[in-house]
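Task: encode each sequence below as structure tokens.

Item 1
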Amino acid sequence: FVLYALVVLSIQIAVAFNTDGYCKAERTEIHPFFVALFVMHQLVPACILVMPVYFTVCKFAREEQKFEVVLERERSLVVAKEHVLGALMPKSVAEQMSEAFSLGERLSVIADSYRETSVLFLYLVGYDQLSLRHTPEQVVSWVKAVFAAFDEVMEVTESALKLETFHDFYFIVSGCPQYQKNHAEVCVSAAMKMLHAAREIQRPDGVRTLVKIGISSGSLCAGVIGDDSPRFTCFGDTVNMASRMASTSHSCTIDDPCVHASRAAAKLLSTWSLDQLGLALSRKGKGTDVKGKG
């Protein structure tokens, strides 16, 4: 193809040289064949020198294209990893982990204690019984729908953090790792929104979803656990108390709201904030005995 192009080019140049405009001075006739040979003699060595450079440039262009594809793939993986980290843990902790990963450093221990926090536990009522009476697909679809509705609530609740879901419970915290002044009120507000969301979802047996909610306030410890599958989690007496508050609460819906709060959480809830949510503090009988706490 290259030789054919050179021959055509040479003939065109020869024809141009053979015109009156180029040969007017001496009025001589030059055969196009000889002009073509002359042009070929001049161009072929130049092409022989240029072709290796051309092939080298093409090779580098292909390598650069492959590099761009690999680089774009790496960027996509980094974005996906950051998205997963952001979904599993707070933004500040995720950024710290991403920086360590990008530098190829071993992840150091990430842990701290927090003095002013509130923890909310929410249990789905009837989960164990429904698991025995209905198919796995029905139970999983129900739990998935309920937790997805709770996730939507958490997306608009910036001052609280979803920590974990497991089987039949949903676990959130406020005041950790970012300080939040009204952390107890934030948890109660989130609880009411979750009651609204649960009301719209039916269980596999056709009954509206019922929940048990418990809240406790106080200090706790938090940190990243695990290397291969790191998770940000909280632990301590406040977490245990919130779990017990939920397990000893009675079933509630938006028509009969009830948030079982520990004494520490109740002290932080103002009458005004509870009025805004349509709630009021009350103590039935002598209270609830909690194992290990009286």
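Item 2
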Amino acid sequence: PAIGTAFSRSRRRFNARADHEPTTAVAAMPPAARSAARTSSLYASPPDRIAIIGTGVIGASWAALFAARGFDVVGMVRNEHEAKLFAAAASEAWVRLRARGIAREAAPTRIRHVFSIEECCAGAVYVQESVPENLRLKQQVVAQIDAACPRGVLIGTSSSFLSASLISLSCAVDPSRVVTVHPSLPAWDNFVEVFSSEPSHVARLVDLLDCQLGMDVVPLGRESHGHVLNAMLLSLATTSALLIRSGVCSAAEADRAASHMGKLMYAGGGGSANYVGLIGGGKLDGVVAIATDGYTNVPLGMLGSAVTAVFGHGLLGRALLWLLQLLHAPLSLLEGWLHPMRAIQTYFLSPCLDEYRRLGGGDALCHRILQRVIALDSADNLPPLSD
């Protein structure tokens, strides 16, 4: 029911002037107020202009999304071949946006291209950079954008892992306006994470990305490698690859495990409700105890698996397993608050308890999660992935 509201357009227009004062920090609003801020209306005429530098899959998806929301979009390409690739990628993204109910016209008519950064940035109220993940290239491109744009125009970088601080080192005009604006896949999903050391920049980004594009904006507290989304994705991808290559499971089996984990994560709105509510029984002590056991046994489990893989189940292998168990015994004998891992897990998991309580906690929350699981289980309208 909330999808139509979440993707509707705001009455307010994004203003990239240096003296712009955002009317509200939408990220701090309660859900009802956030929904009320996204009321359908046409943008003032003429529409604001968005510059797209880097017109691959991500850049073209950004272009299609901005155009679908009523902005005039200009992409910078280096030659006619890139122009054709840009148009094709934007059209492909547009098809997905139409299927999701975001784009309404049959084709993207608000997107055009130019052949220089200066021409692309002229008159733009916001610039989105999405060139390949190469530090030197990003620094060169962003420095040119910085030189071409008037002061006050924010420059968002879609960098997957590199920080905006690194990327903006070569900027001579205003390095602080280079901000992290990292999406998942704009044509497929509405998630985006943003970071700036300037609170006013964050408020303006929320005003643009949340209120006018209908995206789910996560403002980050500080810079981090991979931000949030890619850091978690990298961890999952690395673990999956190791499990597959070490013979624990096949790629299909790893995908099945990840799909079930994803279902519970989606049903619980993320990890906190699952960790504390479903696994920990609604108590921090419960999930801490399980996490403590799990992390305490990591060295024993990993080394034990390695011993079995190398030496098999014969006498030598069994003898080494007994030795590992003996060496691990002192740590496993520690109980309760004497266990050093317990204090570590309590520290890291306490914010999850706070989020669990914010969601309401208790049996009522678990019941809502169960209803969401049932809905996902019964989603027989989902098409199969294989033929």
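Check on item 2: The longest helix spans residues 80-99. DSSP finds 16 helices and eight strands in the chain.
End of task.
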